[in-house]
Amino acid sequence: xxxxxxxxxxxxxxxxxxxxxxxxxxxxxxxxxxxxxxxxxxxxxxxxxxxxxxxxxxxxxxxxxxxxxxxxxxxxxxxxxxxxxxxxxxxxxxxxxxxxxxxxxxxxxxxxxxxxxxxxxxxxxxxxxxxxxxxxxxxxxxxxxxxxxxxxxxxxxxxxxxxxxxxxxxxxxxxxxxxxxxxxxxxx
Length: 188
What we know:
Elements: H1 4-17, H2 20-23, E1 42-44, E2 69-72, E3 80-87, E4 95-104, E5 109-110, E6 119-120, E7 142-151, H3 163-173, E8 174-184
Antiparallel strand pairs: 1-2, 2-5, 3-4, 3-7, 4-6, 7-8
């Protein structure tokens, strides 16, 4: 049985990360991995600002470059990291744009080059690698979540594994997380 303090902590984390509705009986079948894991990691980027619009060069309307990410606060004892970039406002549920698995726990940044032994799972279209933000024309601003997960062990999943299997492994292994959210809206 959970202590009252642990329950309050979990509920607070869920409210701050926007997962309370799905955890309280909502029908979101596309829930983020490890929603109740403590948000202990600080994620930032020299290329995009939290809460701001993603610069065009990192989207399908520009050159589609991979924005650089940096983080700190990985919990002690973490053995690996995973990075998930998704569009939480995609019409069919969160769309995975990039999913990197098994980064060494000592890693503090990621750009276009994925260092060994890390590898990439498939995006929502089944292709490994970065897919730049590209919401449908006419939609409002979509929220892109750049989430770093600390894992208690490497997933040991193969390169190109499907995103559902990779997210399940993250859910099972996560001991910490952090997130940067930015938006993008296509201009007609």
